[in-house]
């Protein structure tokens, strides 16, 4: 006769699996996470930050095709395979959109691409500029599936690379908020008295300050940059975790298993970490999923205001900022595509949070 596990973890996992939108959102988040880690593998433009600009083909519609002439550079870029995989390729070559080209003897004559019915500039160079005098291998037809932005960069590549910032800021911010929030909430709820009053005063003061305003203040104090935003967002999200942990510990510390642990002579640190916290983590997990979504929205707002990730780094919020004016110019997709990316990722985390809440509800 087979033994069927009826542990709370198994029951919660079974309930979560039965939630279609929870499982679907979890798979979607895992897919975005995979794309975030290996963004430069999937991106058509594998240069660092997908920042290869072609001003001649700026703000072109999705599916735009053009012939691209790559002029090899004499500069050597010493870069390891690991660096190329996770941080992009240092591209010293020059890419030129062209409309036509021809080879006569040792001379390559090409006409630069020009839009709006204009005639491109015709230029000539020696074939000796190319390795092995092979021109054909350096002229390729390039397709921009999502079109190009106002600087002529591949929008699909920018979206894929931009997923990295939005995804990782959630992890870093939630990690920081958990460390601070669980510590402050545990101390306040377990010891009570003056310690609880002081910590609650700090929590209430921090809670009263608008989140975005506090993030802006911390960001300006630490300076503009990538990691500064991560830290700033994390330092503003711990109060919610602390309040939840404090309330859970206040009710849990009167339980019989805590009284038994005290009778056995265990110290306060062991009672909190080994006995109380493992039994109150369900609501903390749910609020962490919501904080993950909130962190993505805050980072997008900061990037939109210009104090988040700085150029040339790709960020969904910065992409909306650069192109929101194009909504009334018939090219709204430049702002809508990154906006949909933000919306879908935030929605996925909220659905995961709802599914976890239902699965971890012991009364259900």
TrEMBL record:
CDD domains: TM_PBP2
Gene3D superfamilies reported for this sequence: MetI-like
UniProt main location, coarse: membrane
InterPro entries the UniProt entry points to: BP-dependent_transpt_permease, MetI-like, MetI-like_sf, OppC_N
TM stretches of this protein: 20-43, 165-191, 198-220, 226-245, 276-298, 333-356
Keyword annotations: Cell membrane, Membrane, Transmembrane, Transmembrane helix, Transport
Family annotation (PROSITE patterns): ABC_TM1
Pfam families: BPD_transp_1, OppC_N
The ABC transmembrane type-1 domain, residue ranges: 163-353
Highest rank taxon of the organism: Bacteria
Subcellular locations according to the entry: Cell membrane
Residues spanning the signal sequence: none
Membrane topology: Multi-pass membrane protein
Record-stated family: Belongs to the binding-protein-dependent transport system permease family.
PANTHER family according to UniProt: D,D-DIPEPTIDE TRANSPORT SYSTEM PERMEASE PROTEIN DDPC-RELATED, OLIGOPEPTIDE TRANSPORT SYSTEM PERMEASE PROTEIN APPC
Protein name as catalogued: ABC transporter permease
Species the sequence originates in: Mariniflexile soesokkakense
């Amino acid at each position: 006769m087979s033994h069927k596990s009826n542990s709370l973890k198994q029951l919660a996992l079974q309930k979560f699996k039965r939630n279609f939108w929870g499982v679907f959102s979890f798979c979607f988040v895992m897919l975005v996470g995979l794309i975030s880690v290996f963004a430069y593998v999937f991106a058509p433009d594998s240069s660092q930050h997908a920042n290869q600009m072609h001003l001649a083909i700026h703000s072109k519609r999705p599916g735009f095709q053009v012939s691209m002439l790559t002029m090899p550079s004499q500069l050597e870029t010493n870069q390891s395979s690991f660096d190329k995989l996770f941080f992009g390729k240092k591209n010293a070559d020059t890419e030129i959109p062209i409309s036509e080209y021809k080879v006569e003897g040792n001379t390559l004559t090409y006409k630069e691409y020009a839009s709006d019915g204009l005639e491109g500039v015709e230029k000539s160079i020696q074939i000796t500029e190319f390795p092995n005098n092979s021109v054909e291998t350096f002229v390729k037809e390039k397709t921009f599936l999502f079109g190009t932005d106002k600087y002529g960069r591949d929008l699909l590549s920018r979206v894929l690379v931009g997923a990295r910032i939005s995804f990782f800021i959630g992890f870093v911010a939630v990690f920081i908020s958990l460390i601070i929030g669980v510590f402050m909430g545990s101390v306040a709820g377990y010891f009570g008295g003056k310690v609880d009053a002081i910590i609650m005063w700090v929590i209430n003061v921090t809670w009263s300050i608008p989140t975005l305003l506090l993030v802006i203040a911390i960001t300006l104090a630490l300076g503009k940059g990538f990691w500064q935003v991560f830290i700033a967002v994390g330092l503003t999200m711990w109060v919610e975790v602390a309040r939840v942990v404090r309330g859970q510990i206040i009710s849990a510390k009167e339980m019989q298993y805590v009284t038994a642990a005290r009778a056995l002579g265990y110290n306060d640190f062991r009672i909190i970490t080994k006995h109380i916290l493992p039994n109150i983590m369900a609501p903390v997990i749910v609020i962490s999923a919501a904080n993950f979504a909130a962190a993505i929205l805050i980072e997008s707002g900061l990037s939109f205001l210009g104090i988040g990730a700085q150029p040339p780094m790709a960020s969904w919020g910065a992409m909306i900022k650069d192109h929101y004016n194009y909504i009334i110019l018939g090219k709204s997709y430049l702002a809508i595509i990154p906006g949909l990316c933000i919306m879908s990722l935030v929605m996925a985390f909220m659905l995961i949070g709802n599914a976890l809440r239902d699965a971890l509800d012991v009364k259900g």
